[in-house]
Amino acid sequence: MRFMSEQPERWTQASVYPDMWTDPGDDPRESEGAPPEGELATLQDYLANYRMTLLMKCEGLTPEQLAMRSVPPSTMSLLGLVRHLAEVERDWIGWLGHEPLPKLYGVRDGDFDGAVADQAVVDASYADLKREQAAMDAALAGFQDLGERVGKDRISIRELLVHRVEEYARHCGHADLLRECVDGRVGQ
User: Fold this and answer.
1) Using omega within 30 degrees of 0 as the cis cutoff, is the peptide bond preceding 73 cis?
2) Is 63 exposed, middle or buried (0-12, 13-18, 19+ CB in 10 A)?
């Protein structure tokens, strides 16, 4: 396990706002169109933006940098976050009342502990995330009533969607700090 030992100098790609990740005109999360209409479209838009944010925080890094545990004693890394969110997406299927799926990475904390500096692990982790996101999105696509309650805990679709947004938002905050520790790149 490799931990960060020296502090990198802060930097940004932005020229207009030096404390941001990128200039607003270059930010793929910014759109020219009208904002989403309705609660479902708004939740989906926020989720899509947080998913994109996570990927942006991981862009341009080597497998070693992605796997770096930069906030000791935590085992958290950017690659670990990618793997964790794949695992969480997979787990949410069970919340809908489907049969729970086996863990992607085996034992508890396998998502973070198995985040090692190997290109094959990196590639597989990104593929896992994409696949699990698509599966959960497809499973939710059949629900139009956000108040509908599902699963053994009778969770509403609304609550599940808000929880998904919250999970990504929380981990994007972690990703901001992890990335800054890795190479000094500031968050946005």
Assistant:
1) yes
2) middle
| pLDDT single digits (tens) 142-162 | 898 999 999 999 999 999 999
Q: How far is Cα 14 from Cα 32, in angstroms, rounded to an integer? A: 19
Structural domain for 139, as ranges: 37-183
Question: Is 9 domain-assigned?
Answer: no
- The rounded mean pLDDT for the chain is 88
- The model carries a pTM of 0.85
Is 4 inside a domain boundary? no
Domain count, the chain: 1
Residues in the chain: 188
CATH code where residue 83 lies: 1.20.120.450
- Residue 22 belongs to a domain: no
- Of 28, 84, 68, the closest CA to residue 52 belongs to 28
170, part of any domain:
yes
- What are the DSSP calls for 133-161, one per residue? HHHHHHHHHT---TT-EETTTTEEHHHHH
Reply yes or no on whether the pLDDT at 2 is more than 60. Answer: no
Per-residue pLDDT reduced to its tens digit, 59-88: 999 999 999 997 778 899 999 999 999 999
Decide: helix, strand or coil at residue 69: strand
Concatenated DSSP letters of 27-52? -TT--SSPPPPSHHHHHHHHHHHHHH
